[in-house]
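TL;DR need structure tokens for one chain.
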Amino acid sequence: MPDQPMPSSLLDRLSALLGPRGLLTDPADLAPHLSDWRNLYRGSTPCVIRPGSVAELAEAVRLCAAAGAPLVPQGGNTSMVGGATPDESGRQVVVSLARLNRVRDIDPLDMTMTAEAGVVLKAAQDAAAEAGCLFPLSLGAEGTATVGGVLSTNAGGNTTVRYGNARELMLGLEVVLPDGQVWNGLRRLRKDNTGYALRHLFVGAEGTLGFITAAVLRLFPRPRETEVALCAVRDEDAALALFRRVRDRDEGAVRAFEYMSGAGVGFYARHIEGGTVPLPGYDHYVLVDLASSRPEAGLRPLLEAVLEEALEAGEVLDATIGESEAQRHALWRIREEHPEAQKREGASVKNDVSVPVSKVPELIRRASEACRRLIPGTRPVPFGHLGDGNIHMNLEQPEGMDPAAFLARSHDIMDTVNAVVRDLGGSFSAEHGIGRLKTDMMPDWRGGAELDLMRRIKAAVDPQGLMNPGKVLP
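>> reply
TL;DR here they are.
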């Protein structure tokens, strides 16, 4: 990778290609693109490219490849691991796909949507709804995150237990490769057994192999009936027992099953405007979300029967069921505002980890205890997707501790949590990806043949190493 700054001739060519809307160079315009959502990293760039078409992006990539200019793709810039932030060298060009924001096609019979990379996730959900369908991928940043970003990171979110991660919702891709070639793999086929499934190389690669510019996404029937309940449960084991009860009654009805600690719910009540909690003062909570496209599915009596059994067994201590869409939204808001509430409470170290579902209670207990031993006064705030084994094992700074001093121990904390995760057969990154934050963990967790194969794929597809350098691979 060249050490010299971007040549002015390249900037001139990009300006001629993209025009004033497509090339940003003013420091004020660059600033929003230079730091990540968590403010862990702040980089520098000579310019931000904002192509208005796939053809413009392909030609810009060709120009940058010829000049040896590294490229950093950026969607909604909601990465939790610094995956879309340029480094401090001032040589990496940020490529924003925000202007590639068209829904090209929706087919309610095929149950597919073809959307460009810059389509905001919420806009994709709304477009599907207008067509009488459901695009089920749902996460806290859905008002900002984009289709290209969630596919590049293989985002999970709240409904993975029912619909799978982003990878499972993708049928085909369009990709601009590192040399500027455009691969059109926008196939709407459920079955296509014709060699290597190239589309899966780019999902989860975090832009290190090419730019996803559009995707064919799977749609589903819209739910005709939904039920949401907030439950105070005895402990982590009771939360898992309740999940099993609901799943055993009707696995296909479980759309989401979320765990929350009493600490996290307390932060929500303290810091989020209008943050009322209908069942205050408990140590453990779960949010149960059921949905069915079947008419007269009987979800309400199913939920009430399960809760009655769990109350009699002492697993559920109290529960409330949303009686309207507004109430269901209010219950979900308790869960969705967890990241913002933690941010307002102080410094926190985030661990996006997964273990087998049966090991979730042990993960929460053991990791919490280990982190309290590491830094006395640390406040564990575990929450997340109990139904698929993905818990955000977050740690809040001790009260009164200097935030910077706590964050300086971030890697010690992550190592402490990961030691428990490894012992339980889990993964150190469940849905946030590797980005820049976790590259140092890759040799220990994915070393040997696995990491070697990743590097060989990277070298074959991106021989100059220009695509999102410094991310994923150490």
